[in-house]
Amino acid sequence: MPNCCTNPTASESTGKFFSKRSRSYARAFRKGKLEKIQRYLIDEIKKESLAGKTLLDIGSGVGKLHLTLLQNGAESAVGVDMSEEMLSQARSFAQNFGVESKVSYQQGDFMAIADSVSQADITMLDKVICCYEDLNGLIAASADKTKTLYALTFPANNLFTKFIFTAEIAISTLVRRGFRPYWHNWSIVPQLLEQRGFVLVSSTSQIMWQAALFKRL
Q1: What is the DSSP letter of 21?
Q2: φ and ψ at 144, to 5 degrees?
Q3: What is the CA radius of gyration of the chain?
Q4: Nearest-angstrom CA–CA distance, 152 and 154
Q5: What is the mean pLDDT of residues 174-182?
Q6: Starting at the edge strand that comes first in sequence, how are the strands of the sheet with 54-58 ordered?
Q7: Is the pTM of this model over 0.90?
Q8: How would you class 164 by CB atoms within 10 Å of its CB: exposed for 0-12, middle for 13-18, buried for 19 or more?
Q9: pLDDT of residue 9
Q10: Is residue 4's pLDDT more than 50?
Q11: Maximal C-alpha separation, the chain
């Protein structure tokens, strides 16, 4: 099975899948809408001083997380996404918010281009690790780019969410869709980050998603 998303074909398919949805993501952000789980993560990050902090937003989409934090005092940000349309929307928002000089964007699969991505004080992955088959590899690569805080959202570990994901995986396989999500043993996420030198600071869980913030020891 190709290792989404380090396989070039899988990476391209993922980019196209999310490019088709970029306008709906942008419309929601334009209306000021952040998901509850995203607001939680932003509020937890803001408990730390943002002054002078650099951000790495992996799977950045239209920029909801890093652009919000830049407006709240962060120094600079790098957004990485497989979808050029998502990044185009993010660039437009950055310009509208007057922070375009503080942010740069790189298109591609993070695991494929990680060597070209600089370390940051704060790394964020919002609903990203469920897009990768290699959970361990993604967490290791992204944690190595993190100086202080590691923030992420990922599927809630319950039967309802597992059913939704399993159904989506089955449909994607049946229709031979290029992009498909992955269901992992989410309970090992804290352990994987602890092995990279982090400690859990805060976490919350909702019906579909959970969020966690880790700090490097």
Answers
A1: T
A2: -65, -20
A3: 16
A4: 7
A5: 87
A6: 103-107, 76-81, 54-58, 120-126, 146-155, 209-216, 198-205
A7: yes
A8: middle
A9: 60
A10: no
A11: 48
